[in-house]
Write a sequence for this structure.
């Protein structure tokens, strides 16, 4: 019985702390921007995996992509860029939205989307501009 309890407590601990796939937001990154960018990249990733063009997105997801472009293409005074890494996140995410909107979902496009998502996640986690990222 003790062994079962020990195994269960280890499993619960691993589930709570060790199995998180959530991207950690570095202190040098605007948190709202990071969350919005991750949301948009997830929408595009899911759509690409399902071979869904932008015309085939449900209204809610499509509106989120448009909303992101409206909010970050020409940000107003309420948005605070913390550093150059924020600019890189915006550039990668807006570029991915644009590429996805124009895409016929070629395999090369799909690879680019996934690479861009990976780059955005690394920038968010490391708080560095793209050129300074560590693998």
């Amino acid at each position: 019985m003790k062994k079962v309890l020990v195994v269960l407590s280890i499993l619960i601990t691993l589930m709570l702390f060790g199995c998180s796939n959530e991207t950690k937001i570095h202190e040098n990154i605007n948190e709202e921007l990071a969350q919005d960018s991750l949301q948009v990249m997830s929408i595009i990733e899911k759509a690409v995996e399902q071979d869904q063009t932008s015309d085939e997105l449900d209204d809610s997801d499509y509106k989120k992509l448009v909303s992101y472009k409206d909010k970050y293409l020409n940000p107003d005074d309420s948005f605070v860029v913390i550093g150059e890494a924020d600019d890189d996140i915006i550039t990668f995410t807006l570029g991915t939205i644009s590429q996805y909107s124009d895409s016929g979902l070629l395999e090369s496009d799909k690879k680019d989307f996934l690479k861009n998502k990976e780059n955005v996640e690394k920038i968010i986690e490391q708080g560095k501009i793209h050129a300074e990222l560590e693998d």
